[in-house]
Model the fold of this input.
Amino acid sequence: MGEPFLFKLHSPENYIVGGGFFAHSSILPSSVAWEAFGYKNGASSFNKMRERIEKYRRIPADPHNDYNIGCIILESPFFFPENEWIPQPKDFSANIVQGKSYDSASPIGRELWKAIQLRIQATTLPMIEDRQMPMFGDPVLIQPRLGQGAFRVLITDTYQRRCAVTQEKALPVLEAAHIRPVSEGGLHRVDNGLLLRSDLHRLYDRGYVTVTPDYSFRVSRKLKEEFENGEPYYPLDKHKIWIPKRETMQPSRRFLEWHADEKFRG
Done:
């Protein structure tokens, strides 16, 4: 995570013109990819995106097929001015379709990384600090700063595409919820997220449900008092949520405590 990922133009324009930093890869229904990234997928509309998929795959149009597509999520993309485009490496064959990896310890990889570093440092990208990276040293792994779309995809995959509370797996109704909203000082971080069914997400944002620092799901009495309802939710009260096994991916107890104290209606 955080390795440089470079952009090369199609032949005969054999130049490297920019890149980004690898954050995550996933296979997603095209509708989810569009909801997460919109026109950043490279099309002006979802229908145009579908048309491109059908064109590249050489398949007839099927309006009922939510095509699965591979998504490579990059953070902090950068592009070079045309006068700084880098000629492709000498060993880059015209037959290569899916890209090529280079080891920075190899002569070609070292020279390529040197050229990339010179241009990156000239643009003073905020994700790279000079004191952490020698002028022409090896690539340094970095923790990408996520955007909204990348946050959604990472949370979806981190929670294995199931609601942390109900275990619902129908992807169209699952949403990445911020524990502490961005508008209130939160960040697009994996430990600041939960994958929730859409109705639970809305209740969570409005404080009618919360998750305590010990990962217990709680339902506010206000739900019944204000709406004379809530029967589908009260059976979930005090149940433990499902969390990822990797500690670094688990919801932050500090953020959970903030939500329980500041947002939950009790």
Summary: The CA atoms of residues 162 and 173 lie 10 Å apart. The mean pLDDT is 87.
